[in-house]
TrEMBL record, chains A, B:
SUPFAM superfamilies noted in UniProt: Ribokinase-like (SSF53613)
Organism this protein belongs to: Compostibacter hankyongensis
Superkingdom, taxonomy of origin: Bacteria
Entry's Gene Ontology molecular function annotations: kinase activity
Protein name per UniProt: PfkB family carbohydrate kinase
Length: 308, 308
């Protein structure tokens, strides 16, 4: 199924207990595209970068089937820049620097060639930008998936609620689910969030896996137990990329297939955290991915004889 | 397979964000026995209580096939008493009161009728007591399972290490695994703990499920997403009871069957947390358990077509 990805493309500078990165390539849409291109081509990207964004990075994405007609290049301005530092447990981080730069006044334009897309993946970005993209689409995609972050809950609550009404699948982390719903129990949170619009809700719990809620059904996918989480940056975006990539490849948006999509998303995220930035995602091939998925199958597979 | 359970039988007083219990029945061996008796009878209990421990509680256990010949009754002294208060997230708690009472100088005596047991379940208790039980057994059980708590890491490190050398399966929580190994990564922690003795390691992560490590294999079982965790007290012991009960019933101590045992343990623990103390465990029947296990199967079951 044809896929539009909307999100930031950016520079990151990351500090973890294991080391410090240079100024490296990041951004939600970058991670999503690198993960999803393993499963579906083309990917129609919508984003904005500054004149400092390396041409070779754009070429590398293009070579993987990522169409960049919807990526605006503002040559006289700098790209979005984020810098953060992770704590020892890697589940919490401090933002050191956020420079919105070209992202601050981004007005997305959906190219004519992108029209008719069946899947829309809204990566973490201002809700107003997400709404603008939705409103520019002449036909509603079969499935709208959104990945959010608490930043927008604090600064753009009303617009966020408008986006949620348009969204079929919402991907958020556990803290966001609690903040969005005001409920501590994730089961209760899921019920409240369903009332806000999304028919499917994925709650990402980092090293503790992910939950998929739909009507009265719930599915759980573990994260792969890893020796080290080297750098968690982009793991959520990569999860989203694997998730949407699998749906696009299989052309199946049923609950059952979303279970598989979450396993694929978890597998992709498990690669992402092995090195800084998108480095590991650029190295892996189909065989690596299949082997990793087999590890997930082994991880949760069991046979049980009921007592009776 | 014949089963000996060693552990405390006690009084608890519990405060959670949802309410406050009276002085209720608790203790590791109590929870283990109530969970395990659904799967195997008899259970040969080793513990100590004071004169204040209600006769009807002992009778209730006896009626479920729990043999109490190894439970000493010190009529002129009080039972072990613990009181604690849970925080909002239910994953952390403060101990308010610990009165060891009869447990402080407990010298277990293994009755002759208990000899020849194939399974030994060492519930949370002083390592010296655990060692004493092991040394009194004339033939080594086929499988020794131990459940520990950080309390003994602080006060009886050397004896704890001696116990670990005798243990085949160790059940601990994530914080204990980190403390015991000095490793933050649970994968690394598992490797170090294997060198201390246990061939199988189960790391319990509460609401985040449980991991089973054995050689280079790893298996993950989720916790059931619940609306409310009403009282987590005894959930770990109940998990242990379901785990050992399943192994005893099926007479199979392979890695594959331990996967099932962990699912059963998780299912039993999911009942435990629904009410104060052992209340919920006393209510449920085989049908409740089977239905709960089916929920676990639905929770993690997926079909995936590999890409190639």
């Amino acid at each position: 199924m044809s896929l539009i990805v909307v999100g930031s493309m950016a520079f990151d500078m990351i500090e973890t207990p294991f080391g410090k990165s240079d100024r490296i390539i990041g951004g939600a849409a970058t991670y999503i595209a690198w993960a999803a291109q393993n499963f579906v081509k083309p990917i129609r990207q919508i984003s904005v970068v500054g004149g400092d964004f390396p041409k070779e990075e754009l070429d590398a994405l293009r070579a993987q089937g990522v169409e960049l007609e919807g990526v605006q290049i503002k040559s006289d301005r700098p790209s979005f820049f984020w810098s953060g530092k992770y704590h020892m447990d890697m589940n919490t981080r401090d933002t050191l620097v956020t420079e919105l730069n070209v992202l601050g006044d981004f007005e997305p334009v959906v190219p004519e060639s992108y029209q008719g897309a069946e899947l829309l993946m809204l990566g973490n970005l201002a809700p107003s930008v997400q709404l603008s993209v939705i409103s520019q689409l002449k036909t509603r995609p079969r499935l709208v998936v959104a990945d959010t972050m608490n930043f927008w809950m604090e600064s753009a609550w009303d617009e966020l609620l408008q986006v949620l009404k348009q969204v079929d699948v919402l991907l958020i982390n556990d803290a966001e689910a609690r903040q969005l719903s005001g409920e501590y129990s994730l089961v209760k949170a899921a019920r409240k969030i369903a009332e806000m619009g999304p028919r499917f809700l994925v709650i990402k719990k980092g090293e503790h896996g992910a939950l998929l809620f739909h009507e009265n059904h719930v599915f759980f996918a573990p994260a792969l137990p890893l020796e080290e989480v080297f750098d968690p940056t982009g793991a959520g975006d990569t999860f989203a990329g694997g998730f949407i990539g699998h749906l696009a490849r299989t052309r199946d948006i049923s609950f059952d297939n979303m279970k598989s999509a979450i396993i694929i998303g978890s597998a992709m995220a498990s690669f992402c955290v092995e090195k800084f930035g998108i480095q590991r995602l650029r190295e892996i091939d189909q065989e690596d991915i299949e082997n990793r998925i087999r590890q997930f199958i082994d991880l949760v597979n069991f046979d049980i004889d009921l007592i009776g």
